[in-house]
Design a protein that fits this description.
alpha+beta; six-stranded antiparallel beta sheet; globular
Amino acid sequence: MENVLAASESPSNSPQIMSGFSPSGSAIFGPDTVLDNTYRIVQRIASGGMGEVYLAAHQRLPGYFAVKALQAELAYHPESLARFRREAEILAGVRHPNVVQVVDFNITPNGVPYLVLEFIDGPDLATDLRSGRLLAPVEVMSIVRQVASALAAAHAVGVIHRDLKPENIVLITVSGQAPVVKVIDFGISISGVGPRITTDSRVMGTPEYMSPEQALGRREEIDARSDQFALAAVAHTLLAGRPPFRGDTPLATLSAIVHGEPETLSDQVSWPAAEVEAVLRKGMARARDDRFSSVLEFAEALEAALRQCGALELPPTSCPSTLFSTSSSSLSSPSHSSSSSSSSSPYVALSLVSAPMTALEDDSFDDELLVPARYYSPRALAGVTLTLIVLVLLLGARMSAPLDTQRAVTSASSSARLEARRVAEGFGQWIDAARARLKI
């Protein structure tokens, strides 16, 4: 399952039942089922071939959790059970604010294993990419920096994610700061700790973001630099709006990764991208040894390149993004939207999102309403004042001047009035546009 949901506290223990998801088949847990006398099932919110995800309320404390349960028939399959248990152990060992946290692991009396995870109320990056909105480079850099920090924490304890992609990067809104990233779904991660699962040598992951060694099924070569490749591919996708490697089929995409070159970033953005493209290509180098030594080094190099070309000062290249909103969400009135799932994907892409964010997301906003800076800068305001003074003097002189002089004064005053009216109208338009953008 792609969007394993994770926690946010709420004063209410009775959230509104979320709409928009009607899984087929019988559920593993029914509504109001209480697990371990602690977690009361509220609703099933995601379903996939391996298991299901539920929203659960704590019986004794305010707050909600996500419960991920393995299908009962798979609980008796040694490999599936070992992978599920290892996901719990891996998440428990990676303690980091940008990694979804595991709260508990247990098995029901009838043999169903389940994970209790923090509940994350927010959209994944794939949702925004599908909407056609592009983030500003400074926003992309904020996300890359946080993901790199999360991956570095995992790498420090010998864990390789193996499936980093926009769907597995969730953003939660925090008042007063940029959105906080949560890296989710360590279901196919590998770890140097514990016994090896026999099928770990299979090709697993998402084609567009798989490293060449991963695409070739060379498990012994998969390390932290494989996650770096995926992070560089995600960064390229966020900046350009599409992945660096694409094919008509998953196999064609994998072939492009193994034998081809990433798409040129310079052709897809409006700012000088030579330095940034060089960093991304190094992060996605075909040979592992040609990449950066760590994900943190990659993130630092990318930020330096974006700053050098001035991209960090640029606004979003499309309509304003909804990801960097200051609005807050609440479980008291959530709405649930599911992303499209593909039959070629082994997962069901579902995410729980709050009510639509509003700040800076008005698609009807027209940048042409912003008048040139000369109409509202301090220098321009001083010019307006001087123009008005000259206009008053000209009108006073007109009363006692000869006829020819009065005509000249009339012409001059008309021009002055026209310019003053133009300045006043432009300044008023700028005020109205700024108020609309700031939602005042």
